[in-house]
Write a structure and sequence with these properties.
By secondary structure, the chain is of the alpha/beta class. About 45% of the residues lie in helices and about 15% in strands.
């Protein structure tokens, strides 16, 4: 069999790494296509090296643009790849623009599509990722889910049972595989912190950082928290840009117990947050990783597509209300944070089940 695997943006890299490794142990041909949606050193190159992802067979080098332009460019450049390689399957992961764009191309060419991480739903259509999930699932031939919630969502939407299969979470494959390797680094010391004595912050969603009042409120909340718990803020380029544009960057830089950092490589960030007391974030994947590591996570969003992390993990879905964020923060500081429950099939072997499902 011939399979094209699609990778495009930072959240994809952790998912494709174990899948590429699992395919390399078979006789089947796996062609890795990087769309170039994230293309700079911090967002792409370092991840390929650290996660031991093979060099892409093809790089479409699309770069950044508006959603419509970027997706159109990916589709235009990916179609000739399909004509030349003639794959039996196109495998896509996650919910970024590359996922939806390549799925559309493959489907129109009559090539089977396998969607890894299918069935996740935030039910917030203002999120571009939610549209990508809905579109990709609607046209995929094989829907591989990370949890029972994904199965339920897909079956409720009318997808045939035989197309839906729970395989577990490939993000956790990467996390468990890389945890010891990350342990060789000592990120807390780089920020003059002791393990377990600090929190980690990430913010990047436009809904949080593109609104001056909302961003000011979140930074003001961080100001209160840093007076009780030192924080490391791995600041996303978009967040830095908007904070500067709104005149908030100096305010953030003036907080004595917040250490600002450029975006970190996968291993550096894993080493850092795995030794933290808590994480405050609006990321999707971090909700899963902190739950598996049994680290309290305060999610600064009104919804999530990963409710398993709330129901069975360590995630608190809080939104952006300052009073609610501080209430949960106090709960964690008093040692009363919830603990991880059972996370079925998050066992480090999802990639093998993914390969098996395609061959079946």
């Amino acid at each position: 069999m011939r399979i094209i695997g699609i990778v495009g943006a930072r959240p994809n890299f952790m998912k494709i790494a174990p899948i590429a490794r699992a395919f390399s142990a078979t006789e089947h041909e796996f062609c890795l296509v990087h769309t170039g949606q994230h293309y700079d050193e911090k967002m792409s190159d370092s991840f390929f090296r650290e996660l031991e992802i093979p060099e892409p067979d093809i790089n479409l080098e699309v770069g950044s643009a508006s959603h419509a332009v970027q997706m159109a460019e990916i589709m235009k450049r990916f179609e000739p790849v399909c004509h030349e390689f003639k794959p039996d399957w196109v495998l896509v992961v996650g919910d970024v623009n590359s996922t939806a764009a390549c799925s559309l191309v493959a489907t129109k060419l009559g090539i089977k599509v396998c969607h890894v991480e299918a069935g996740l739903r935030s039910r917030d259509r203002a999120m571009p990722e939610e549209i990508n999930r809905l579109v990709t699932d609607a046209i995929s031939d094989l829907l591989l889910t990370t949890c029972e919630e994904g199965d339920r969502n897909l079956l409720a939407e009318g997808h045939p049972r035989e197309r839906v299969k729970m395989v577990g979470n490939p993000m956790i494959d990467t996390l468990s595989y890389m945890l010891n390797k990350a342990g060789d680094r000592n990120l807390p010391a780089r920020f003059y912190m002791d393990p377990g004595s600090f929190g980690v912050v990430t913010l990047h969603r436009p809904s949080n950082v593109d609104n001056p009042e909302l961003l000011k409120n979140l930074l003001g909340t961080m100001d209160i928290i840093q007076q009780q718990l030192p924080l490391v803020f791995a600041i996303h380029p978009r967040t830095r840009k908007m904070a500067e544009q709104f005149g908030l960057l100096r305010y953030l830089e003036s907080m004595p117990n917040i250490k600002l950092s450029e975006p970190l490589s996968y291993l550096d960030f894993l080493n850092l947050y795995s030794q933290s007391k808590l994480v405050l974030t609006d990321s999707g994947g971090i909700q899963e990783e902190t739950s598996w590591l049994d680290i309290p996570c305060i999610t600064l969003r009104e919804n999530t597509e990963r409710y398993i992390t709330v129901d069975h993990g360590t995630n608190y879905l809080i939104g952006t209300n300052r009073e609610r964020i501080l209430q949960v923060f106090e709960t964690v500081m008093k040692g009363r944070a919830k603990r991880r429950g059972e996370l079925p099939m998050w066992d480090g072997h999802a990639a093998e089940r993914i390969v098996e499902a395609i061959f079946e």
